[in-house]
Amino acid sequence: MTNEDFLIQGPVGQLEVMITRPKGIEKSVTGIICHPHPLHGGTMNNKVVTTLAKALDELGLKTVRFNFRGVGKSQGRYDNGVGEVEDLKAVLRWVEHHWSQDDIWLAGFSFGAYISAKVAYDQTVAQLISVAPPVFYEGFASLTQMASPWLIVQGDQDEVVPFEQVKAFVNQISSPVEFVVMSGASHFFHGRLIELRELLVRNLA
């Protein structure tokens, strides 16, 4: 796969973006991936984010990772999830402008799973992928009727997002959802990233 790293215009300045294109046949699908919490070291180079990118690459998708405002080369400052939603919408508009015929998949890990779910709730996409979604965030409870197909992946030994809370949230979802549990996996999937990639490929193929 090949990578391109550059800047696009965001709501409060430039956003750092990385596009990865698959080696083989490229489908007319673009996956946009959101990183974990900016105030806790989250960037587009987070290992779970790059694992998501590798999985989508294996499926023939081009992927777009980006840094939220205030992270890396992206301008601005952290905005409690409000501005970060606008950042994702800006990236989504950029993708739709450049690849207008593509289906869009949104994916995110932890904080990024919250942001991508918020946007997918307002704008239906071809696929939503949430890894370790922080369902205890204010506003997550209102996302139980998602028009987009939804895959949720959760480790049952997550030390940040309690497994039972995610399970309870999934049980409240009234729209189609696939809930996959990785037994023994922690929040950051330490030592389990290859297994996570294989799981994603298997469930999204």
Automatic annotation (TrEMBL):
Keywords: Hydrolase
Domain KANL3/Tex30 alpha/beta hydrolase-like, residue spans: 41-191
Keyword NADP belongs to the record: no
Keyword Glycosyltransferase annotated: no
UniProt GO MF annotations: hydrolase activity
PANTHER family referenced in this protein's UniProt entry, alphabetically: AB HYDROLASE-1 DOMAIN-CONTAINING PROTEIN, ALPHA/BETA-HYDROLASES SUPERFAMILY PROTEIN
Protein name (Swiss-Prot/TrEMBL): Alpha/beta hydrolase
InterPro entries: AB_hydrolase_fold, KANL3/Tex30_Abhydrolase
TM regions (residue ranges): none
A Pfam family assignment: Abhydrolase_11
